[in-house]
Write a structure and sequence with these properties.
By secondary structure, the protein is of the alpha+beta class. The chain is 25% helix and 30% strand. The radius of gyration is 23 Å and the shape is globular. The protein binds coenzyme A (COA).
């Protein structure tokens, strides 16, 4: 028997593909939810829908064989340090029938996915990993970090009163809530490295779907407007009773599924509003930056309690030159690097990375082929450092990068970003 990766051929295969992936994630197959299927179909690209098929012959054109796994993906723009947005793909639903694991299914579909993505001219493939030990072998590196923060709203206090002149309100009209949140999200995508853009089909899921891998489920939409009347922050939240049932015992939780501010004043105002919600004593921010600026505004920083912190978006470089030339740099410098890429020979280099310019905005990189490199990175290591999530120095101190001390210091300085990257959307 051989295991191959290929596209889906007919409606029956579409359903089997879905059932197998659902089963891999522990869902029990039932009556298909047609609305959800249609929404997801609109969201994902056919070119990124791949099935793993086990059969007697390795014929990618045949419909014979059993679908034992699959994945799907959607294209979007990924923000680099400095605000440039590059075309990337987000991979999701990577699953193999639990009764068919260990036969190389993950490997064949990942390699097929990466080849297709590179052929489509995408600069990177990205994903959120349910298990962090899976994707390094395919050249992905942890490109952003996320935390879950909790705050006892009854105890927490801001160090200084808020005088931003703006105001917050809950928007009940869903079309208006969507219009405002979409505009704020688009703006944050021009400011925050690691942000992935959302298509209209994705926003459809955010606003209409039940709580799931792509959507926060039914939530209230809170908007903040600044003094000039411009919307500059939103939060999707719901109130959760601690022990279920019907009666509130005034110890509820404000579960914040999305929290996006274009500046720290907006974030403070949104948090201040959430802290005053009656019947609740705690706030949980489900998607929060590890270096949240909000902690600096509290009298007691420990009140913003980090209950979990781990990898966020993973990134697999597909177009090294584009990633290096479109991000911004805080300093000038020059270093020759090689990418030890086992899949894409044309991406290896060695490349001379030369960065010059007077200011961050003017400072640009030129990448040219070179005979030899000062240091060698794996694609996953480039994925870890390209947005500024991990220091090159840290990887070198861990004994993972070989190269001269001078070259390591130089690349470390060049890759530093002024803020840590953050991905607001899980997928
Ligand atoms: C994870 C999963 C896709 C692996 O599928 P599989 O067909 O058994 O994988 P393969 O046989 O192709 O293995 C490829 C490599 O991954 C390794 N691997 C498999 N499962 C692993 C795991 N859970 N953790 C770490 N490594 C794993 C294999 O050892 C193999 O390593 P190698 O490259 O050194 O040979 C499958 O177990 C699954 O569907 N799990 C549940 C859903 C899930 O977690 N999906 C990932 C979502 S982000």
């Amino acid at each position: 028997m051989v295991v191959i990766a290929r596209s889906l051929r007919n409606e029956e295969e579409v359903l089997n593909h879905r059932t197998v992936i659902d089963t891999a994630f522990g869902d029990i197959p039932g009556e298909p939810d047609q609305t959800l299927i249609d929404q997801q179909k609109a969201m994902v690209e056919e070119a990124h829908t791949i099935a793993v098929v086990e059969g007697i012959e390795a014929d990618a054109d045949s419909t014979s064989g059993e679908i034992i796994g699959g994945l799907f993906g959607a294209e979007f723009n990924l923000t680099l340090p400095g605000g440039a947005q590059i075309p990337a793909v987000g991979l999701a639903g990577v699953g193999i029938n639990p009764a068919r694991v260990g036969r190389g299914g993950l490997r064949v579909m990942m390699e097929e996915h990466l080849r297709r993505s590179a052929d489509r001219g995408l600069a990177a493939s990205t994903l959120w990993a349910s298990e962090s030990g899976l994707y390094g072998r395919f050249g992905y590196g942890s490109a952003t970090t996320m935390a879950i923060h909790e705050l006892r709203s009854s105890d927490a206090k801001f160090a200084l009163p808020l005088h931003d002149g703006g105001h917050c309100d809950i928007i009940f009209d869903q079309a208006e809530a969507r219009r405002l949140a979409t505009a704020i999200y688009a703006k944050v995508g021009t400011m925050t490295a690691g942000t992935t853009s959302r298509s209209e089909a994705w926003w459809d899921m955010v606003f209409t779907s039940k709580d799931g891998w792509l959507a926060p489920g039914p939530c209230l939409t809170l908007i903040h407007w600044n003094e000039a009347g411009e919307p500059d922050g939103y939060s999707f939240y719901k109130m959760v009773q601690p022990h279920g049932g019907d009666s509130w015992i005034v110890d509820g939780l404000v579960s914040v599924r999305e929290f996006v501010g274009l500046n720290v004043e907006a974030e403070r105002a949104l948090l201040g509003f959430l802290m005053r919600i009656p019947l609740c004593r705690r706030i949980r921010l489900d998607m929060s930056p590890v270096d949240s600026l909000l902690r600096h505004h509290l009298v007691d920083r420990r009140q913003l309690h980090q209950i979990e912190a781990h990898d966020g978006l993973w990134l697999r470089p597909l177009d090294v030159t584009r990633l290096l030339t479109e991000r911004s740099y805080e300093v000038s410098g020059e270093v020759a690097i090689e990418i030890d890429d086992p899949l894409f020979e044309d991406q290896r280099g060695p490349w001379l990375l030369s960065v010059a310019g007077a200011t961050t905005v003017e400072r640009r990189a030129v990448v040219t082929p070179r005979e030899a490199a000062d240091l060698v990175l794996t694609p996953g290591q480039l994925g870890e450092v390209i947005l500024g999530n991990t220091r090159v120095n840290e990887l070198a101190a861990a004994g993972l990068i070989e190269g001269s001390e001078e070259a390591i210091t130089q690349l470390d300085r060049l890759m530093l970003a002024n803020r840590k990257p953050f991905a607001f959307s899980k997928f």
